[in-house]
Amino acid sequence: MGRTLQNTMINLGLQNACDEAVYQLGLDMEELEEIEEDAGLGNGGLGRLAACFLDSMATLGLAAYGYGIRYEYGIFNQRIRDGWQVEEADDWLRHGNPWEKARPEYMLPVHFYGRVEHSASGAKWIDTQVVLALPYDTPVPGYMNNTVNTMRLWSARAPNDFNLRDFNVGDYIQAVLDRNLAENISRVLYPNDNFFEGKELRLKQEYFVVAATLQDIIRRFKASKFGSTDSVRTVFDSFPDQVAIQLNDTHPAMAIPELMRIFVDIEKLPWDKAWDITKRTFAYTNHTVLPEALERWPVDLVEKLLPRHLQIIYEINQRHLDHIASLFPNDVDRLRRMSLIEEGGTKRINMAHLCIVGSHAVNGVAKIHSEIVKTQVFEDFAALEPEKFQNKTNGITPRRWLLLCNPGLAELIAEKIGEDYVRDLSQLTKLHEFVDDDLFIREVAKVKQENKVKFALFLEKEYKVKINPSSMFDVHVKRIHEYKRQLMNCLHIITMYNRIRRDPAKLFVPRTVIIGGKAAPGYHMAKMIIKLINAVAQVVNNDPMVGSKLKVIFLENYRVSLAEKVIPATDLSEQISTAGTEASGTGNMKFMLNGALTIGTMDGANVEMAEEAGEENLFIFGMRVEDVSELDRKGYNAQLYYDQLPELKQAVDQIKSGFFSPKDPNLFNDVINMLFHHDRFKVFADYEAYVKCQEKVSELYLNSKAWTKMVIRNVAAAGKFSSDRTIKEYARDIWHVEPSDLKIPPPNEPRDAGQDKTPNGTAA
């Protein structure tokens, strides 16, 4: 979520008033804003997307709730010591959190372990351990519409009789200390991005948020006029018309068997009725195609922790497979491929399959990704129910990612096209009229230059390196992962360094290369990549032959509040994942909206950015998805590229020989070995095209006017990538609710008594 103060002031239309009031108290608002901790309760794009979605849902007047876990410790703080990443606990609640309100009156029990007893009256889950879920509510204000939605985060609490009801009454002290065991559930965020770690505590977290949230939703449904009770029993027929639940990846997949358990075991609905309601309630968004990221929980673990849920999953699977067998008799291989249970070795539950079978809609997050989902990853399911599969291209909120972080550009745009674009970003196309307006071109360039000077001062303060603000700011910020190919950027840096040293007199377009991002603590290769970048920076930044022509900076502790500083100052945005690996990306959109040009592959939303702006207004290079498949078919041979490209060979040899690690020449052996023998992401295959494309970037940068005109064309084409547009599509195609642009009267104005304020239709 990042910081809340400035975003709240902007959405409430109070920023200028607050700035002025605080100034009159002899304080500086910007200084005050820097004191607030980021709420870093997610890992990367997936968590930030949810935050943008909450902003858009409130701005569109949807009655929507964001549910999650109130981690005591969020994503770790990253320190760089001697070039290595070192993790520190993110004690973000140390000074309290003024934006949250604990709601003990809505505390709910969550059950674990135990056993299942079957009787004539149905299944009973008994002898369970209970953990309490305490909700904390954070307001989510819409933009200038007096709407405030709620983000409800659950915190784990031990019941007061925890470990005291049973036999160990003897050790009272130990029993109280053991309360920590229950409360550890919401202690810390697992720091993996695009990687599945099948730990028991993680499964507990996933079920904890799901069980608390579903009870909360059902309580709210029963309290509403729709949850009409037929004497004792609630009639749930209207449930899917009043409630839509969007599963953000498979992490909350246990919601499907949990809702079935509530309907069948507790509310005593017949299975078929319960299943129909469940399917119509859930929709699933897939966020990655990397096999190592797909959740596959061991059956033994689920059986121990959630025995009733395992039985329900087996029953769902049995009926699912019976249905497929009736359509494809004797096709046992299809049954194996489509089963929710993977046999062979340890039996596992494929959570993506569970989500597809238990949802009425499945979507990818960019056109190219949704195609891959349909034709490759889940092709059997798409063949069965093609109408279930959709695309919803991701977006970003223009409130945080333009108004808040880049007020200079936001104001310049407003002067030209008015202020309405903030709620309807498609209006940015009006900027096309000014692409040849010399004054506007100069003003756009001036705003960028001011942002760069400001960021350069920040860098000099933090990193003690002198930055040339007229150099090209070439920025690569995102989680560190092999598929995102920070290594390819690194090879380009070494290549530029070698060219400068080979011919110091030759014209070189000066660059400041900024790379930032966190590596999962257990991801050895990602940590080696960080060390390599810092080792290269050490050599480049201290070579007098290079001087101010090339500087390399690794941005420590990349997070939302740092993104808000670096993105508006960026000239060149690096989006260089291997085609077919980045589901969408959203950083790419933030840079585009803030006047950076993109160098990128035809991957994720880059494809649609090129479609909107015209491919000639992006620096597109490298293999397409088809080329990657073809290379896989032929077999990728890294050695071939090394042998044929002298500059690549030189760069690789320097890493290999210890040129960047003289004290330990073998330091980067693992990296080199990976690049030659098991590089799934084919860095060498795109190296030549990448370097050539970078030459075109430098050439254009020399012509400031032509560069800025291309910038304007990009900003003018960025409208599609508002999360407002994304959410309107979810609302229309999946949730079946109507967004409203009505401005609710402010609380100080009397409301029209005749108005029925019950939201019309579904809550998402």
From TrEMBL:
GO CC terms of this entry: cytoplasm
GO biological process entries: glycogen catabolic process
Chain intervals for the UniProt region annotation (Disordered): 738-764
Catalytic activity: [(1->4)-alpha-D-glucosyl](n) + phosphate = [(1->4)-alpha-D-glucosyl](n-1) + alpha-D-glucose 1-phosphate
Superkingdom of this protein's organism: Eukaryota
NCBIfam families: P_ylase
Family: Belongs to the glycogen phosphorylase family.
Protein name, entry field: Alpha-1,4 glucan phosphorylase
Organism listed in the record: Gymnorhina tibicen (Australian magpie)
Gene of this entry: Pygl
